[in-house]
Design a protein that fits this description.
The chain is mainly beta. 5% of the residues lie in helices and 42% in strands.
């Protein structure tokens, strides 16, 4: 079997580069998910109004002895969402598009506080939560 000889000076043969991708034009859909929990469950209250501070917390005159103690919240739960959009690449350098997303969560919790209320006052148990959020936007950028 004969193999053709090749001189060291002969140029290497290369294959052509692949064609560039068709661009950024098109629809897309995506999903996200996660889990949230409270890393620091303590919530403190400090009145930023001098009169409120005088009524609720002890001051230089010895008035007010019911400063609100910190409250403790225990929150956790799952969250997820979807996004959908469309991009259009009118030339080689720019992309414009629109998108919309919707997110929801089941992050809930309960809180406790040792704050003593005056007789006849009511303090309902609090349940912090955020259920749904949606957003729409337009965007553009250079490729």
């Amino acid at each position: 079997m004969a193999v053709p000889a090749r001189s060291p000076a002969s140029p290497a043969v290369s294959s052509p580069l692949p064609a560039p991708a068709s661009g950024w034009t098109g629809f897309y859909i995506g999903a996200n998910g996660g889990y949230g929990l409270d890393g620091d469950p303590t919530v403190s209250f400090t009145p930023n109004d001098g009169a409120a501070n005088d009524v609720t917390c002890a001051n230089a005159f010895g008035l007010g002895t019911t400063c609100i103690p910190p409250a403790s919240f225990a929150t956790r739960g799952g969250l997820g969402g979807i996004q959908v959009g469309y991009n259009w690449q009118p030339g080689r350098s720019w992309v414009v598009g629109v998108k919309s997303d919707f997110d929801w969560s089941r992050i809930t919790g309960t809180g406790t506080s040792k704050f003593a209320l005056p007789v006849g006052a009511n303090l309902e148990p609090q349940t912090p939560r955020r259920r749904k959020r949606s957003n729409g936007s337009a965007h553009y950028g250079r490729v």
